[in-house]
Amino acid sequence: MKFSIIVPIYNVEEYLEKCLDTIVNQTFDDYEIILVNDGSTDSSETICRSYMKQSKRNYQIINQENGGLAAARNTGLLVAKGDWIVFVDSDDFVSLDLLECLDKAMAKVDADLYTYNHNRVDLRGQRTSKKLYAVENNLIKFTSEKERNQFISEEFLNYSLGWEAWGMIYKRSIIEREKLLFQNTVEVFAEDLCFAIQYMMHVEKIYVLCNLLYNYRIRPGSLIETAAPESILPRIYKLAEFLYTDGKLNKALKKNFSQVYKLLIDFHIRYNLSDSSADSIAEQLNELKNTTKYHRKWYKNNDR
Predict the structure, then answer these.
(1) Cβ contacts of residue 79 below 8 Å, gap of 6+?
(2) Model confidence, pTM
(3) For residue 113, what are the domain limits?
C-alpha cells in the first residue's frame, strides 16, 4: 500500500464531512484511511461511521479516550500499513489530487520527505491567503551531516518549509526504524516541530512541490492563540530541553544546540510575542535564566 492517511478527530462535527469528502474522493486509489476518534463528545463518531459506510475505500475507525492530538496521531502510526504517512487534521481539507501529485513526484524524485504549499482558509472554507514554500518544484539534497545540520539550524527552524505534521509526507520505514512518536503537548510544546526535527536527522533528500495541496482552516482556540503570552517562552524552553536530553538528535547538532535554542526563542518572540512589551519579554528570559538548567548556557551570547 502506498499511503496511509491518518486523521485525528476531536469534536469537529461542523467541519468533518468536508474533510472526509476530500479524503475519500482522491484521484489516486492505493491508500488507506485511518480515523482516530479521540474521545469526541459531539456527533463526530456518528458522522465517521455514516460517511465511511458509503465509501468503498480501505478504512478503519479507532475510538479511544481523549488523549490529545499527539496520542491520536501515535495511535494511527501504530496501525498504519502504507509506505508513506499523510496526516490530515479533521477541521481541514485537502486537494482531490493530493495523493496523485505525490505519487507522480515520487516517481520522478526519490526523496525521504515531501512537502507542499497550502492555502489558509476561514471558517467557511474560503481562502484568505496562501503559504508558498516553493514557486517551482525544488529538491533539497544533503551530502553530509554538516549540510543537514546547517539547513536545520539556518533554514528549517526559521520556518522555511513549515513545521506542521499535515504539511509533510513521512516515510513509514524511517518512523518505525527510529521509533519516532509525537510527544504530548502537555509535556512538550510544538509537538509537530519536535517530531519533524527528529525525523530530519535521517533525511538525505527533501522534495518541495509547488502545488497548493492542503487547506488549513484558521480557527480560534489553537494552542498558540490561547496560550498566555507569559507561558510561550517557558514552553519553548521545555521543548528545547526535551530535544537536548531525550530527543534523537545527532551529536554535532547537540554540540551546537545553543544556535538551535536561540533560533527557537527568537522566532517565537518575533512571531508569537510581537504584541508583548520588551519588559515582559525580558522578564520571561530572566525567569528562564534563573529557574532552568540550560537557558543561561544556551542563550548567553544573545543581543537582548
Answers:
(1) 34, 60, 62
(2) 0.94
(3) 3-217
* CA 232 from centre of chain: 18
Contact partners, residue 94, CB within 8 Å, separation at least 6: 22, 23, 88, 213, 214, 215
Q: In residues, how long is the chain?
A: 304
Within 10 angstroms of residue 149's Cβ, the number of other Cβ atoms is 21
Residues 150 and 290 in one domain: no
Asked if the model's pLDDT at residue 62 lies above 60, the reply is yes
Q: Are 211 and 115 in contact (CB under 8 A)?
A: no
All three cell numbers of 88: 490530515
| 263-277 pLDDT, tens digit each | 999 999 998 898 899
Average pLDDT over residues 242-270: 93
Residues 244 and 154 in one domain: no
| Candidate from 106-110, 178-182, 217-221, 261-265 with smallest mean pLDDT | 217-221
User: Residue 222 falls within a domain, yes or no?
Assistant: no
Number of domains forming the structure of the chain: 2
Give, in order, the Cα–Cα distances in Å from 263 to each of 122, 124, 199, 210, 256. Answer: 30, 35, 19, 26, 12
Q: Integer distance in angstroms from the first to the last C-alpha of the chain?
A: 52
Q: What is the CA radius of gyration of the chain?
A: 20
Q: Which residue spans within 107-164 are E strands per DSSP?
A: 113-121, 127-131, 138-141
pLDDT at 168: 98
**In Å, what is the CA distance from 4 to each residue of 60, 192, 263?**
11, 18, 33
For residues 246 and 82, give the distance between their C-alpha atoms in angstroms, rounded to a whole number: 28
Average pLDDT, the chain: 93
Q: What are the grid coordinates assigned to 300, written together?
A: 548567553
